[in-house]
Design brief:
alpha/beta; four-stranded parallel β-sheet; 7 strands; 15% strand; Metal-dep_hydrolase_composite; Allantoinase; Amidohydro-rel; allantoinase activity; Metal_Hydrolase
């Protein structure tokens, strides 16, 4: 980690959320590798931030958790090596939880066009071997959930090369469907995806009034046709900036209606403004 701010005594009632970083060298490697060629290859980004660096950062956090007892959540896991560290930590009974993101589960660096800055994020998108390990971590409960890590950016911010463009993937509108598609290809179900992206995530952040379809809970609902497919068109998404790493992908899951606290989410909404309060 770039720094640590853990208490030195057991404080299990205090939570810490940590984004794994392991010093400044990976960023330097990214710059050096990128400037060697006028076209930045899709393999530069993952090579500049090796999976072992991520796993080392997670190991450091796990050691601190073992020493302090502080409940800790690890963000944006992208590597099977990190999953292995977390699996052992959970087996030891340490109060650790962790998440991954749709882009790490559904995209791989070997099929990203060179200089395609829509795919730039940190940690970087890795290869299919790492992707398989992430799915295994979800299936056995090592990873607790999947979150979008939605990072919208203007076209200007995403311009340039992988070395200079803003890092982040815009996926809020399609992330659930991308994960659903990947899960169904692997023999997993809609129920699994809902557990990872709704039930578990609500529980982790203490939203006890939502996250599941149960009497007395808040009715935040989406009516979805899981086997109906559609092609992602970035220009047709509701995001202000039409940049999406899933552009052109065929995904499962057509949403027909959405309810927020029991109310139709689009009822009475002004054009161009999808934000409503229950």
């Amino acid at each position: 980690m770039a720094k640590t701010d853990y208490p030195t005594q057991s404080t299990s009632h205090i939570g810490r959320i940590r984004h794994r970083r392991n010093g400044a060298k990976p960023a330097k490697w990214a710059t050096n590798a990128a400037t060697k060629s006028p076209t930045v290859a899709n393999t530069v980004e993952p090579a500049s931030r090796p999976a072992e660096c991520e796993a080392n950062a997670v190991r450091k956090i796990v050691r601190l958790v073992a020493r302090t007892g502080c409940r800790t959540h690890i963000l944006h896991v992208s590597s099977g090596l990190s999953v292995d560290v977390l699996r052992r930590a959970k087996a030891e009974g340490l109060p650790v939880s962790a998440e991954t993101c749709p882009h790490y589960l559904t995209l791989d660096c070997d099929h990203i066009p060179d200089n395609a800055t829509a795919f730039k994020c940190c940690p970087p998108i890795r290869d299919l071997h790492e992707q398989d390990a992430l799915w295994a971590g979800l299936a056995d409960g090592t990873l607790d959930g999947v979150v979008t890590d939605h990072s919208p950016a203007s076209a200007d911010m995403k311009a340039g090369t992988l070395a200079t463009a803003w890092g982040g993937v815009s996926s809020l509108q399609v992330g659930f469907r991308a994960v659903l598609t990947g899960a169904m290809r692997r023999g997993l179900s809609l129920t699994d995806v809902v557990r990872w992206m709704s039930c578990n995530t609500a529980r982790l952040v203490g939203l006890d009034d939502r996250g599941d379809i149960t009497p007395v809970l808040r009715a935040d609902l989406a009516i979805i046709r899981p086997y109906e497919r559609f092609v992602v068109d970035a220009t047709a998404l509701e995001s202000r900036n039409p940049i999406c790493a899933c552009d052109g992908m065929t995904l499962n899951g057509v949403v027909t209606r959405t309810f927020v606290a029991g109310r139709d989410a689009l009822s009475g909404v002004r054009e161009g403004n999808l934000i409503v309060r229950p």
